[in-house]
Design a protein that fits this description.
Order of helices and strands: EEHHHE
Helix content: 40-55%
Protein name: DUF982 domain-containing protein
Pfam families: DUF982
Organism: Mesorhizobium neociceri
Number of helices: 3
Number of strands: 3
Number of domains: 1
Strand content: 15-25%
Distance between the termini: 30 Å
Length: 94
Amino acid sequence: MQDAFFAVPIIVETEITGEFRALSSASEAAIFMMERWPESRGPRFQAALQACTGLLSIAEHVENARRAFLTAAKEAGLNVKSVCKGRCSIAPLS
């Protein structure tokens, strides 16, 4: 099974202030949620985790998983950078 890559990666701050992680796929987002998510896990957390680990056979499902992650991240108060709507470019993290 191939990984479901996001059209635009999500760049999110980890639990270490100033440290950011680029999430390029639904599986990377799910792993981040299971391993590095803050203790506060609201109702959108479970929906996002299900979306990122569910059926991702078409681009629409992948984009829905990305949106669900962003919604859960906002609910949890995570710092997300370089979230683009439409066309944009993201500089690689050094």
